[in-house]
Amino acid sequence: MSLDIHVFRTLSDNAGALIRDPATHACAAVDVPDAGQVLAAAEEKGWTITDIFVTHAHFDHTQGVAAVKQATGATVYGPADAKDAAPLDHVVGEGDRVPLGGFVFDTWHTPGHSDGHLTYVGEQTRLALVGDVVFVMGCGRVQPGQLPAMWTSLSRIMALPDETKLITGHDYTLANARFAMAMDPANAALKARFAEAEAAKAEGRFWAQTTIGEEKATNPFFRASEGALAAAVGLVGAQAGEVFAALREAKNRF
Ligand SMILES: [Zn+2]
Q1: How far is ligand 1, taken at its centre, from the CA of residue 14, in Å?
Q2: How far, in Å, is the centroid of ligand 1 from the Cα of 60?
Q3: Distance of CA 113 to CAs 21, 110, 206, 233, Å?
Q4: Is the four-CA dihedral 55, 60, 65, 68 of positive or negative sign?
Q5: How many Å lie between the centroid of ligand 1 and the Cα of residue 78?
Q6: Which of 34, 50, 158, 236 has the fewest beta carbons under 10 Å from its own?
């Protein structure tokens, strides 16, 4: 049994995401970048939002939460440091479990991009809501001094089964693909995906979903333990966490 998933553009590049249990019709919005756009998407699908899962406190993920809660009466889950940004009914963190109809998501604390960042992991349904930790062929910006924490967070997510679907927080896919090509130019899977990213951009197709397996094949940050990526940042023989940090700094300058 799997959840119905609808991912769509909000604001300029934020992902709006609705996930619904087809049996009970429980439906969660994953963050609310824009209340009007998220409510309109739910209406278009004929779905009623019952829950809101907040991944992290940043304004572009939380600014619409209060209005959607007011419009729908949804129950809001999120990390403690999002309390000022969104009306949370339940503060959740590492080790908590959040229900959605007949499904359950484990909440993981995955800091680095923001202090309280959560990843919601649905093991039965092989779906993880990764917010701004992972992007298609990329990863989120990292707070000063938080590169080791971000590497720990990414490493945990990378260990999920390859078929696990990821819903990410933004479509930065083409920009990420360009950086990935600069770092990993001999990677055939990446070349194909770069071409797909160019086509998606040309067609105006929103792209913020991926899988663990696809990221392992093409995402330079997931591939920090590969010799080619270590060589790209001049760190042959270094530990993957150090290569990751150098890649993230190279992306900041790219
Ligand atoms: Zn963010």
Answers
A1: 10
A2: 7
A3: 29, 8, 22, 22
A4: negative
A5: 14
A6: 236
Q: What angle do CA 124, 168, 196 make, to 5 degrees?
A: 110
Q: Give, in order, the Cα–Cα distances in Å from 62 to each of 97, 149, 197.
A: 21, 23, 28
Would you state the pLDDT for residue 1? 74
What pTM was computed for the model? 0.98
The rounded Å distance from CA 27 to ligand 1 centre is 23
Q: Write the pLDDT tens digit of every residue in 138-170.
A: 999 999 999 999 999 999 999 999 999 999 999
Place of tokens 């770092």: 183
Euclidean distance between CA atoms 143 and 48, whole angstroms: 36
| Cα–Cα distance, 24 to 27 (Å, whole number) | 9
Rg (CA), the chain: 18
Instruction: Find the 132 Cα to ligand 1 centroid distance in Å.
Output: 5
- Between CA 125 and CA 101 the distance in angstroms is 12
pLDDT of residue 156: 98
